[in-house]
Amino acid sequence: MxxxxxxxxxxxxVAGAALAAQGDALLVTGSNxxxxxxxxxxxGVLARVGVDEPAIERRRQGxxxxxxxxxxxxxxxxxxxxxxxxxxxxxxxxADVDAGARATQIAATEAVGTEAPDDSPxxxxxxxxxxxxxxxxxxxxxDLFTGVAPLGESGVQVVATEAWATMSEPGQQNYLxxxxxxxxxxxxxxxxxRLEIVDPSGxxxxxxxxx
Length: 211
What we know:
Layout: H1 2-19, E1 25-28, E2 33-36, E3 45-49, E4 54-61, E5 64-69, E6 74-79, E7 83-85, H2 99-102, H3 121-140, E8 145-151, E9 155-160, H4 169-187, E10 193-198, E11 204-210
Parallel strand pairs: 9-10
Antiparallel strand pairs: 1-4, 1-7, 2-3, 4-5, 5-6, 8-9, 10-11
Helix pairs in contact: 1-3, 3-4
């Protein structure tokens, strides 16, 4: 019964994440688009971005979307008509990620033995993974991940707990896609990236790579 309850809780978590808008990877569709300090044409302009600029959705207010621009380290508002979901994110469980507001660092086992600064790509990704963990604890009372470590120059390795095995394969794939989207947002879109999910012994369970 406990195992069934755990699996059900994780299934609800994954299903909820798939429907969420927060954390979705977006692309700017216009040229010289204003990024404003608030959801209004009267708000000041923080930056300007061009076509295919990557953005991560944080929240919506009317026809405006608050986004994080990983390439510029800017948080601001863009009109929804000038944004589109990134093609490989349609249907992904990305989930409900607001790393800056709620996340805490995972007590991670790191390959290099030293903790990266909070504003480094690895540091930002750790906060995202910590937030995924918080969601899992809230939904099912379990941790899903115990560590995050660098894997070469553009890779990252996430250590999963035994609870990972209680999820269905589609649920695991959704998490893998969502984690890779967050790693790409943290590391930048213009490089080949790799993400591995391993068990506590270090054995590879899932992987994803790409630009």
